[in-house]
Amino acid sequence: MGFFDKLFGKKEKESLDQGLQKTKESFFSKLTKALAGKSSIDDEILDNLEEALIGADVGYDTTVQIIERIEKRVKQDKYLGTSELNRLLQEEIQQVLVDADDVSYKNFEVPTGKKPYVILVVGVNGVGKTTTIGKLAYNYKKAGHDVLLGAADTFRAAAVDQLTIWSERVGVPIVKQAMGSDPSAVAFDTVKSAVAKGSDVVIIDTAGRLHNKAYLMEELSKIKRVIKKVLPDAPHEVMLVLDGSTGQNALEQAKQFTAATDVNSLTITKLDGTAKGGVVLAIANQFKIPVKFIGVGEKINDLLVFDKKEFVDSLFAIQK
Asked: Which three-class secondary structure string do you get for the chain?
């Protein structure tokens, strides 16, 4: 029983395996084809492996990095059998994934000395941002924390309504204002209320727009400035939510948001509905930002803590 099993149990491990099923089926069909009739790792196998990785949306740059590392190990360690390739590939894929400095989130704990712990959530509309916030609130509350939500996406009525529904479903309070209100004012009121109430965790939703990067940068910067008036070291985390099913488009979104603000954590959603799960590797490797959570379904328990070893193990575990 691995770390992931002990922390979340058998059901969550099964959710991970099932959520990655489309990706692994697509990838392994290509990998099996690449190895057909081969007994040793040669240039043709590596070319086919490169094609399989790119087909899983691992991305060109990350794929080349993985292939070059495998080539180097084959030469150094004299691995000649194709039976060794899976293990080599698993190890090298793990190497491109970034570890978070603070792993307290794996138990939904609040980092020491940061109360309330303020999380600013960014991402375009439709990626599952508001749903992710609801699921985060559920998990933090389940871990014994007092959670407060802030509805700072005031330009879209549906966003406020949806977050309100989640607050009621999870049983946590929410700070909101009328549609069209200043998002930074909502963020300010949310953090101020959290301090007054002694809340442990604050999760603030923001507007999901990319049509004007300069305006996006200005708005997010303003939100961060007003939060600092209440808590000088906040926000403690800027979490970017990306839709894994969009593949390389998610990479482009990551470029835009990391240019607009200091993103320091990632959540990748909708991995259960796509064969493009390899985009997790591409995003984490290219931007050197840790993936903290992944979404593998619509249920409230389907937001899973990301553990790179368990992710890669699951990716290579074909269900019978």
From this structure: CCHHHHHHCHHHHHHHHHHCHHHHHHHHHHHHHHHCCCCECCHHHHHHHHHHHHHCCCCHHHHHHHHHHHHHHHHHHCCCEHHHHHHHHHHHHHHHCCCCCCCHHHHCCCCCCCCCEEEEEECCCCCCHHHHHHHHHHHHHHCCCCEEEEECCCCCHHHHHHHHHHHHHHCCCEECCCCCCCHHHHHHHHHHHHHHHCCCEEEEECCCCCCCHHHHHHHHHHHHHHHHHHCCCCCCEEEEEEEHHHCHHHHHHHHHHHHHCCCCEEEEECHHHCCCCCHHHHHHHHHCCCEEEEECCCCCCCEEECCHHHHHHHHCCCCC
